[in-house]
Design brief:
The structure is a single chain. By secondary structure, this protein is mainly beta. It folds into two domains: 273 residues, 5 Propeller (Tachylectin-2, Chain A), CATH 2.115.10.20; 138 residues, Sandwich (Jelly Rolls), CATH 2.60.120. 5% of the residues lie in helices and 44% in strands. Strands 1, 2, 3, 4, 5 and 24 form a six-stranded antiparallel sheet that branches. Strands 6, 7, 8, 9 and 10 form a five-stranded antiparallel sheet that branches. A five-stranded antiparallel sheet has the order 25-28-33-30-31, with no helix packed on it. A hairpin with a 5-residue loop joins strand 26 and strand 27. The structure holds beta-L-arabinofuranose.
Amino acid sequence: MRVPPPLPGKFRIRRFLAWVTAVLCAAVLVPAVARADNPIVQHIYTADPAPLVHNGRVYLYTGHDEDGSTWFTMKEWRVWSSADMVNWTDHGSPLNIASFSWASADAWAGQVIGRNGKFYWYVPMTVRATGAKGIGVAVADSPTGPFRDAIGRPLVSNGEIDPTVFVDSDGQAYLYWGNPNLWYVKLNPDMISYSGTPTKIPLTTAGFGTRTGDANRPTLFEEGPWVYKRNGLYYNVFAAKCCSEFIAYSTAPGPTGPWTYRGTVMPTQGSSFTNHPGVVDFNGGSYFFYHNGALPGGGGFTRSVAVEKFSYHADGSIPTITMTSAGAPQIGTVNPYTRQEAETIAWESGIETEAASEGGMDVGWIENGDYVKVKGVDFGAGASSFTARVASATSGGTIELRLDGTAGPVVGRCAVPGTGGWQTWTNASCAVTGAAGTHDLYLRFTGGSGNLFNVNWWQFGGAGGGTLIANGDGESGTSGWGVMGATSP
Ligand code: FUB
């Protein structure tokens, strides 16, 4: 049992609640074993998922609910990515309210799409000059950014939110958004301007279901549209009814309708009165992203993004999907003999992440007993060494390498020295025995009191690998994060 440490206010509430949960678990003798992998991110609250498949990875764009929020207090957007749907790399925040000189607040639900070798991120915010909601567009050369305001003003601003973007097979791009209405406009090929004027999609009960009890909103459509095409059928998956919301969908023979209501995708569940859909196909499977309030301290304004795998019915209809704490199954295994980012995580306890001076992110704010779980690591015939890139402004500590649980067998203990600074990096290495075959790897951190050290990346050496190589990495966006068995869609 550990007393929650003093922390900047930003982290205090969530970590205190995590500590309370840990104490309660200990009190009822819950064993320290492998655990669920949903929600996807545990070290911050995330909301409004928008997945994008690119070059064999799923990039996940989310909002960020501030700790202790009592409103949708959201200042930045975040990027995560995975090649196996269970271990997610934290790419930090390449876009925030300050990226848009004309915006004042509310980094709410957006979506990213790739086109012409660039990535366009459509996001709703409050327009400072009017106080109304508008939608901005940011552009980047990589899915992880950096993103910059593409036009220096709102692309559209009619007081409504939640853009979704879709490029049809004939090359015509559409931007849809709305709450309480549902709008679309045809984007030009440059993706940062449009032709014609924003048009309202008729919200009929045939198209979007029947809501009872709200004379102002006769249909179920509330917000958060997610539009895509599959096998010639156009889908609009959306947050329905308020409040609490559930996820419903409609289909159409064309991008602008006519829409037919098709029913529930995900019932109201999960301790958050909003939900928000994101749907992709990846590596031969279909995945539904959503959010809930499942983390300690979670709720309507402290939400977390999660994912489930599903299969369309033969007629193209979407099954009813239920929230789980297990999440999607892993695709392939992780190769420990290539460099892995420390911020590639299936589950963690106690850590935070931050920008690393060497590029990308590192795992920091580590205290005694904190851990990072990496799921499904294939050690092959066996590992013989471990190296981690570490930094410590104090006297360091130890990385325990455990298999299959925080109390699982220790296959190595790596001493981390003080390095003279939290961003003064050195390699710490140690011998490894007993790590062969496929296991969940737990990096469990031990030491004295207070913050111990930071970890930027790690890599094993041994039978399956060789000497340490500094290859590309997940931080750079598209290469090098080795997952054996995974293929591009
Ligand atoms: O996250 C703020 C708002 O809550 C989003 O824009 C809506 O979709 C709802 O999830």
